[in-house]
């Protein structure tokens, strides 16, 4: 008499494993896709758990939350602002330890004509005084995170960089190519993020007005620093003015663009201001 044994389904099936971690057995399944999910890949849901892949897919499908002026609401730190501060600090350290670093990147109308990169590189340099970079970085930290979150990262970055260029163009436009014992503005070097920072001041002034908020403190701050630029020697008020005007123009374009055409208007304004700055610089050089 022989006895036969038949293996049931439980004997032939393999235990369920997490797709992302095949070495981990899991009897818990995602409520969306039904796949096994290990504790590391589980994300709490209203009912049961979801896997990280389903959570990521759902996040992509959700519309981005926007600010009143179209900036994308993000959690975390102001990445662009911190990056700019980091670059300025790194460049300041390089100025102290690398011979010729300042001379290599400083802006003057004469140097800018040969190397246009200096129109923007000078905004990441500062004088040897720690107070110069400290004041500019403090001012940047005061207004940068707000503008970055309100306008969004790319518009804020464009605003800062074009304001820096606008500051250098302002220096160029007021400089005289005729070098005299009392006027060496054509070859005098200019450093500092002040032009870009003044561009942020101009933009935040417009943004605050657009949102119906009190902008008197910014107006007073701009006025005080404007007066200081004319009273205190060795301050390039031309850069302040150039950056401020650039910031106001871009800020107005970003803040007052119709919601439906906000993206197109922002790109058009950014390109338009960049082209205008190039044209003004070329026209000045052509007149020399």
UniProtKB/TrEMBL annotation:
UniProt cross-references to Pfam families, sorted A to Z: Rhomboid (PF01694)
InterPro entries assigned: Peptidase_S54_rhomboid_dom, Rhomboid-like_sf, Rhomboid_protease_S54
GO molecular function list: serine-type endopeptidase activity
Domain Peptidase S54 rhomboid, first and last residues per copy: 116-254
Swiss-Prot/TrEMBL GO biological process terms: proteolysis
Keyword DNA damage appears in the UniProt entry: no
UniProt-listed CDD domains: Bbox2
Keyword Iron: no
Annotated keywords: Hydrolase, Membrane, Protease, Transmembrane, Transmembrane helix
Highest rank taxon of the organism: Bacteria
GO cellular component, one term: membrane
Compartments, record wording: Membrane
Regions that span the bilayer: 79-98, 118-144, 156-179, 185-208, 215-233, 264-286
Topology in the lipid bilayer: Multi-pass membrane protein
Family: Belongs to the peptidase S54 family.
Protein name as annotated: Rhomboid family intramembrane serine protease
Organism whose genome encodes this protein: Pengzhenrongella frigida
């Amino acid at each position: 008499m022989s006895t036969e044994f038949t293996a049931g389904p439980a004997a032939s099936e393999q235990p369920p494993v997490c797709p992302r971690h095949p070495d981990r057995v899991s009897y818990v399944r995602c409520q969306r896709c039904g796949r096994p999910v290990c504790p590391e890949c589980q994300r709490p849901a209203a009912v049961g758990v979801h896997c990280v892949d389903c959570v990521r897919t759902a996040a992509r499908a959700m519309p981005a939350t926007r600010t009143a002026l179209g900036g994308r609401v993000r959690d975390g730190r102001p990445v662009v602002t911190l990056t700019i501060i980091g670059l300025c600090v790194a460049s300041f350290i390089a100025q102290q330890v690398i011979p010729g670093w300042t001379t290599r990147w400083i802006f003057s109308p004469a140097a800018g004509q040969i190397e246009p990169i200096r129109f923007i590189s000078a905004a990441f340099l500062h004088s040897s005084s720690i107070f110069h970079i400290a004041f500019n970085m403090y001012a940047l930290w005061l207004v940068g995170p707000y503008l970055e979150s309100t306008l969004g990262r790319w518009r804020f970055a464009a605003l800062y960089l074009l304001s820096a260029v606008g500051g250098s163009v302002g220096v160029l436009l007021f400089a005289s190519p005729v070098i005299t014992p009392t006027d060496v503005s054509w070859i005098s070097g200019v450093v500092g993020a002040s032009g870009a920072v003044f561009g942020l001041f101009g933009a935040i002034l417009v943004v605050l007005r657009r949102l119906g908020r009190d902008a008197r403190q910014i107006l007073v701050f701009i006025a005080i620093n404007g007066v200081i630029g004319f009273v205190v020697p060795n301050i390039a008020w031309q850069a302040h003015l150039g950056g401020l005007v650039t910031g106001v123009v871009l800020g107005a374009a970003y803040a007052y663009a119709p919601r439906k055409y906000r993206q197109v208007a922002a790109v058009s304004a950014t390109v338009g201001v960049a082209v205008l700055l190039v044209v003004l610089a070329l026209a000045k050089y052509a007149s020399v």
